[in-house]
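Exam revision sheet. Question 4 asks you to relate a sequence to its structure. Input first:
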Amino acid sequence: MLLLAALVIAAADMTDTSGLPEREPAAVGMSSARLSTIDRVVQRGIDAGGYPGAAVVVGRKGYSVLSRGFGALDWSGRARVSSRESLYDLASLTKVVATTTAIMVLFDAGKVDLDAPVSRYLPDFSGGRRDQVTVRHLLTHRAGLPAGRELWRIAKTPAAARAAVLASPIQCTPGSCYEYSDLGADLLGFVAEAASGQSLDAFLERSVFTKLGMTDTHFRPDAMSSVRTAPTEIAPPRGYPLRGEVHDENAYALGGVAGHAGLFSTAEDLSVFAQMLLDGGVYNGVRVVSDSAVALFTKRAAGHRALGWDTCDGGAGCGQYMSERAFGHTGFTGTSLWIDPDRQMFVILLTNRVHAARARRPSQVIADVRNDLADAAVLAVMDDPTGVLAMPVNFRADLAQDWNRPLRSSRASSAASRRRAAAAKRASAKRAAAKKSAAKKSAAKKSAAKKSAAKKSAAKKSSAAKMSVSKTSGTKASASKASASAKKNTSVKKPVVKKSAKNTR
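Answer key, structure tokens:
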């Protein structure tokens, strides 16, 4: 009994200490009234059919000032969303929460050199321009890799999918072009495994998640967690509704653990992770990564990209008011995490907008809500040294522009559309190159034909000249013979003198 009581107390303590401590907004220089705007914009997204529910956490100065669930896990409405308990498929947030963090830890330990060729860690990724690709190129999406490959179509096993990633083509000189690439994140995951000697999920569990008390953050969550996991959709090649199983087809092809997707977590677990970064790599006295590594990886490095992370450029779901030093990322399933070091705050949004969305444009709904959420959180900061900004009369969600506009008249603004446009551009360039090459070949053939004709013409002329010379020579010879004959015929003969006959009698 005593043992049981001790276990219950320990479990209660663990529950009580999970997530950030809560504070009233005013205690950290924020307005409760302005934060309440978040309720309106998130609920508008639900009402429009963009997603069935959402988990939101806003934190500042080491405390959670808003931690709330909205709506339900699915459209049935039976299971309500909890920011503490509800699990979401993080999609591309995996790239930063998992993969980039693993590289940061290994960089700190001296096991990964950012400017070393990837082939140092992955010998199978070599040959040609692959030898020029560095770890830094992968982190900034400048390795020259394509956005992705349909691994789930071409690979029957995780090993075959891994081999396909390693065999990915390099489309341009590394460092010279930008292409947001899932394949690059997968290669970073392979680098982390090679440098650590462990699988990516095992290394992160030991080196990051357990240290931070992120007990609900895992790849491949167990079956017990499925009842509190937000479902996504039926995704190829599986053909059944997904719940607690990674949504991304290529992450599934890689066995559910991938550098680009596959991580599940709660909003409150992520709040601890965000606060660790704001505190320079330490949380509750436990150091995960050095403050210098945090500064290096979250600083803008190439274009709008930091190392692994994205930075706030006004169009990535961070709104229009976050500082220039803000960094974050989004996920395809409807997730986002943005951190503003200047204001010592973060904003987390988890949804499953890919789950049977009822809006015509769920991607537009989630884009507007992400930006509204970030704006409302920043505008709630009342002690900002730059001054208090005016609260807009209407947010994007209030206007709901284009949320239900017919799809056929839409502009190509989604990530998928951009990828298709990029693919079309590359195809057009290939066709142009092929035409140019064909033109060169045609010109070369014509030139060769002209040269051949010229040679034949010269040969004919030479032959004719020879024949002419031969005829002339023959004529001269005949004339000589005739002349000689004439001379012979016209020569004077000497007279013959006859001798007189003698008498022989």
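Marking note for examiners. DSSP finds 15 helices and eleven strands in the chain.
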